[in-house]
């Protein structure tokens, strides 16, 4: 029963929240780094799922009724990371998001504060028509 539940969890996770890192990467990273970072995210995702699948029976025997406490804590920390450290990419180009996050890691205002949208550093001028 435990093995079936683990595999069902992995299936549901990959169909639901498992692909979110790939969506975030495409909105936050410049195109030259996207392939490398996506490969790294895939490796970390697969390694994490392997570790969870491997330690789940051990945790089941040792923690019994408190089995899901480590997962609840991990999800809470991940939620805090998403709310306070992930950049807001809505309505911004990749260059604007990258420019916003140059330098050291810093806290952002959070999702509940309206941010002023900076002007784009890229200007577009239509091509000149030669007569």
- What's the SSE pattern? HHHHH
In DSSP terms, counting alpha (H) and pi (I) runs of 4 or more, how many helices? Answer: 5
Helix content: 55-70%
Mean of pLDDT: 75
Q: Residue ranges: pLDDT <50 for 5 or more in a row?
A: 109-114
- Radius of gyration using CA atoms only: 20 Å
> Class by helix and strand content?
mainly alpha
- Share in β-strands: under 5%
Shape: elongated
Q: What composes the largest sheet? A: none
Number of strands: 0
How far apart the termini lie comes to 76 Å
Task: Describe, in plain words, how this protein is organized in 3D.
The protein is mainly α and 131 residues long. Helix content is 60%, strand content 0%. The protein contains 5 helices and no strands. The chain has helices at residues 2-15, 20-28, 31-63, 69-84, 94-100. Helix 1 packs antiparallel against helix 3 and helix 2 runs antiparallel to helix 3. The chain is elongated and about 75 Å long. Mean pLDDT is 75; it is low at 109-114.
Topology:
Blueprint: H1 2-15, H2 20-28, H3 31-63, H4 69-84, H5 94-100
Helix pairs in contact: 1-3, 2-3
Keywords:
131 residues, mainly alpha
Brief synopsis:
The protein is mainly alpha-helical and 131 residues long. It has five helices and no strands.
């Amino acid at each position: 029963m435990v093995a079936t539940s683990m595999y069902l969890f992995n299936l549901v996770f990959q169909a639901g929240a498992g692909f979110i890192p790939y969506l975030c990467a495409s909105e936050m990273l410049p195109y030259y780094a996207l392939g490398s970072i996506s490969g790294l995210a895939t490796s970390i995702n697969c390694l994490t799922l392997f570790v969870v699948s491997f330690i789940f029976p051990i945790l089941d025997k040792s923690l019994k009724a408190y089995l899901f406490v480590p997962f609840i804590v991990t999800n809470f920390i991940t939620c805090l990371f998403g709310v306070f450290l992930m950049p807001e990419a809505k309505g911004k180009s990749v260059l604007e998001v990258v420019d916003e996050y140059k330098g050291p890691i810093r806290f952002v205002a959070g999702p509940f504060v309206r941010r002023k949208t900076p002007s784009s550093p890229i200007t577009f001028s239509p091509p000149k028509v030669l007569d």
